[in-house]
Amino acid sequence: MGMSRQCSKTGCHGASVATLTYVYRDSTVVLGPLATYAEPHTYDLCGVHAERMTAPRGWEVVRLSGDYTPPPPSSDDLLALADAVREAGRPPRAGTSRPAAPGVAGTPTTPSDEADAGTVEVGRRGHLRMLRDR
Length: 134
What we know:
Layout: E1 18-23, E2 28-33, E3 42-45, H1 47-52, E4 60-63, H2 75-89, H3 111-117, E5 119-125, E6 128-133
Parallel strand pairs: 2-4
Antiparallel strand pairs: 1-2, 1-3, 5-6
């Protein structure tokens, strides 16, 4: 599910809005709009890093677009998100078990977990639980 690609800069979790490519033969850095697909020889950058990007000494910078805006989610992204939510809400099939961590939606909790929280499960619909305070 390709909801949003992150900036390639280490430690940055911003959404990518531009793609950077090096043309080594011409000593050129090309910065343009976000590529449709992530490629191994390109770098995706967030708006902040795209604006601040500088080239190595002696290299030329070619900026194909100065307006770096995040692309809107496509219908494929929204459908993939809806499918993931539906899948999470389905009960496990007979003979299979879903890896789960206590306290995560759709996973069983122990009575001690509920006692600690001061709540009691009174109903369930799909992956949603209705809780009541004690």
